[in-house]
Amino acid sequence: MANFVEIRPRELKSALLELDGISRTTIDAHYRLYQGYVVKRNEILGRLGEGDLEAANQVYSALRALKVDLTFAIGGIKNHEIYFEHLGGEGGNPSGASAGLIERDFGSADAWRADLKATGMAARGWAWTAYDWDEGRLFNYLGDAQNTFPVWNATPLVALDVYEHAYFLDYQTDRAAYIEAFLRNLDWSVVNGWIDAYRIPTA
Ligand SMILES: [Fe+2]
C-alpha cells in the first residue's frame, strides 16, 4: 500500500491507573494488547505494499489474509481508543447532550443501562452505544470480535469491552460485576465532547 502512514499508540491517561474496580494490572495488560493492534496494523499495511495483486484469491491468498486481519487490527485500535479515552470519570447518570439523547432514544438512563448491560452479557467481545446516522438515533450494537459486527454509518460513543482480558484478573467470570465497574468509571464529559465534535444532532 503506497503512502500509508505508520501510527503510534496513544498515551494511556494517568487516570486509567486509578479506576474504581478495574485494577492497574488489568489496565497495564490491556494497554499492551492495544499496542499490539497498532504494531500489527502498521505491519499489515507494509506487507500489502509488497504483495502480488495478481495472486489474489478468495479461497486463500496473502492479500486475502492480510485484508481480513487488517480489519481485526484496525477494529482493535478504534475500539480500545474509545474504551481508554472515556474511562477515568465519575460514572453515574449521563449529563448534558448524552443525557438528552439517551432519554429520547431509550426512555431513561436506567433503560439504557439495562439494555447496554444485557448487550454486553450477550456479546463475545463488545457492546457499543452508537449514533446511527441513517436511523437518526442511538442503539446498543453487539460485537463478537474486534472486527464484528460494526454497522456502517454509525458512530460509537460508548464502547464496552467484554472480552475476558478486560475483567478476568479482577472478577474472574463475573462479567456483570465488571460491567458495573465500567459504568462507575465512565467519563460523560468525554462522550459529550464526541457528540459535539461529530456534530451529532441533539434536538
Ligand atoms: Fe480489549
Description:
- It is a single chain.
- This protein has 203 residues and is mainly alpha-helical.
- The longest helix is centred in the N-terminal third of the chain and has 27 residues, at 24-50.
- The chain has helices at residues 24-50, 62-85, 96-106, 109-122, 168-171, 175-184, 188-197; strands at 126-132, 137-143, 154-161.
- It has a three-stranded antiparallel sheet.
- α1 packs antiparallel against α2 and α4 packs across α6 (175-184).
- Bound molecules: fe (ii) ion.
- Fe (ii) ion (FE2) binds at residues 30, 33, 80, 161, 163, 165-166.
Quick recap of the structure?
With 203 residues, the protein is mainly alpha-helical. The chain is 49% helix and 11% strand. The mean pLDDT is 97.
